[in-house]
Amino acid sequence: MINIRRRRRSEGLLSHLGPLPSETDKDPMMPRMISHSTLITFLLLVILLYGLVQLSDFYLPDPLTVVDEKSNPGRFIAERAKYHVTQLSNLGPRPVGSLANEVLAIKYLSKTLSSIQAQAHKQFRVEIDHHVVSGEFPLQFLDGLTSVYRNIQNIVVKVGGKQSSGSAILLNCHYDSVVDSPGATDDLAACGVLLEVLRVITQTNVSLHNDLVFLFNGAEENLLQASHGFITQHKWAHNLLAVINMDACGAGGRELLFQVGPQNPWLLEAYAQAVKYPTASIAAQEIFQSGLIPGDTDYRIFRDFGRIPGLDFAWAMGGYMYHTKLDSADYVPLSSLQHTGDNILPLTLHLANVRCPQDCEPEGTMVFFDLLHLYLFRITSGHAYLINGLIVFLSLFIIYWKSSRSPFSGVKKRMYMYRVVEASLYLFVTWIITILIDVALAVGLYMLNRSLSWFTRPLWIYFLYGIPAMVIPLQLAVVSSSHFKKALEAKSNWAVLNLFVDGNQLLFTIPIVFGLVTNVQSMFLFSVAVGFHCIANLAKNIIFHKNLGGKWSLFYAVPMLFPCLLLWYISHVLFKTIIPIMGRAGSGLLPEVVIAVLTATLIMGIFNFLVPLMFMYQKSGSLVKHLAVIFICSVLVLIFTPLGFPYSASRTNPSPQRYAILHTHRVYYGVNGVLLSDLSGFWVVDLDPNSPYSVKSFVPEFASAIPVEDCPKQLYCGLPYKLPVSTMLSKTHWIPGPKPTIYIPSNLTLVDLTRESDNYIVMKIKAEGPDHMRIMISPIQGVKLVTWSFANGTILPGAKWGLRDTYFIYYSYASYPGPLYFWMKFKIIDPAMAQSPFIVDIAVSGHFLHGPHQKSVKLTKLLAQFPPWTVTSGWVATYTSYKF
After folding, report:
1. pLDDT per position as a tens digit, 79-92
2. Given 3.10.129.10, 3.40.630.10, 3.30.40.10, 3.90.420.10, which CATH number is that of 66-142+153-362?
3. Which site among 46, 334, 429, 692 is 20 to 30 Å from 142 CA-CA?
């Protein structure tokens, strides 16, 4: 029987299983097969690394209370910061123009700051300024817009020592909030931290070489208007060395440094020296700045309009409550406040005592990432570039060197190198196949109305998309073994294992080359992975040649644990941040596909080093079957049991479905003011793939919801978009309903029209409405908008409407309402358009975001019907379009 088995293997029937154990024991050039227990141990070690990453996030400092203050002089007191958060959030939602934002919050901040000023140490000069400002600026954010603001408010505090350098460090937070949200984490938590940092510094005998400027800005949610007003017009905005900007897109956890610079590497070095438990990543910076995550912070305004470098921090974990009515002080952990305060206070003092220019190197960038919050690895971009180049050379050299020292004979170097490239391409194709299968699975779940089944329980992601990302590459590798074994004319699968180890190494070297060419600095992380892979590759061969039996697998796998740990950590931070975002990223396939692709890519990156081991593992079929069974059971559980329900109404950890509903009046006018249409109803903004179907059994009105199909015909779909997000939120629904009562109508009046020549027309327009208005403009084809009265004539186009350009004006005023006058100058490019009855479509929308007119009676009754696992936001809005 043994002879029959050996003959069958030699004939190729079972060749993919490799030689028999007895054969490998006799032939020193054929190492022992990997035992089942060894491979399972490797798998468990990789999974345990994920547990270590999770554990590192749970450790936060014990919060200090007022009782602890005497025994901890000069320390940040979390209880005091939390008190400010509670008092300000109890004022309620604070959109620009609301009583809470423009009066009550100002009153509380002024009183608190005056108290700090009165108790300040005599060595400090503490000045307080109430700043009211108006301005305009273009902002390339979302689809692009021009921001126009009037009478926005800031509270600014300046702290100086006896002797000042004349320079200052700026610290910024914002106290306003979005509609219907108390804004405790976004961004009162940061304001509470800065108030406590200010108190501790001014009541402690510390030296300040540079002044400190604390900006409590009142219009960040209004697309960064208050910070623009400060940095372009305030008297203390000059001679700023750097800014510490604090914001949030989550509740609690650790503050993540996700942007630093530009240039000025001394800032990152200051952070590394001052902060005890760092959390920072070059990958987070490049992902955020790429625009993949729909958001922005005041850091951008300080950078672009003030030319000030800085550090941008945010709470990023657990963003389920972000921008909802659930964002209350109850969900602001004292331990997170303590952690943030313990980091920001020493960082502020460190920056307050830097001496520029000797301590402030302005040129150069850094590559950086933290290791489980224990240490911040940082290196200059120049050194990173050099290391990347050396790693590429080392990787290719090792592959070439192995081609001449291969443990099998009869294969020429050129042939071996050719087969390495082939193996690398095969691995790449398996990645593509795996991603496509995961995407197909995502599409299937979407078609079955099972999208976001992982939303509340993110661990399901690994069962749903992670297991296929493990199984498919492993199985495809086993299938390919006979082909590559035959191509190499090898006696055992050890040759194929070496080939795939080198193919893996080559595959991961390519992104490093890409980073060298494109200057994508986060590709340095691939250098870390390839560097350890080179060590594992060499160690495996050295142990093999020393005839140490099965220990070769240990020396191969252990060096790869550090790259696995690093990738698990990046995956953890990424998923904790991005999963809640998927609940507000719009309807359609996008959220499910994004998670499928990310999971597949990250899991393959983590477990890819195990693929070559399959060639020396006899029970690969059994492993694949067990994983496949787990996967199938997981899919069935998610589809047929409540465990697959996406949302949760848990009081401690809510993960609700979001709904934004606008009670809307829509009016379309044609040429010469002819009324074309007059509609009223409820506009349902679909924020996730399950909207609006998930609540039809709770809200009877949703039975009459129809998809909005006016987008090709009407500017911005004939709907009152609050933000220029027609590209991202293209799928919405309309429910016909009664007309809301409009207390302040929105309208445009053509005040004057002047023909400067045959080719140029100037229109002067008056806009009237509530304190939040949006104006959308689109010249017809053959006509071009060449300049206007906004932003010193700077024109920023938005999303295309068919073949036509559009322009979005984001207008608001905080007080003293009045009409907005502006002019536009058009050029007739196509002479045929000179005879057109109109040359521009223009629309105005009014939004009632606060006060007694925010919600109509009908809207209030509609929102009251939603189930407890949802969170709603709504207001009355109007849309009126004209053809001028």
Report:
1. 999 999 999 999 99
2. 3.40.630.10
3. 692
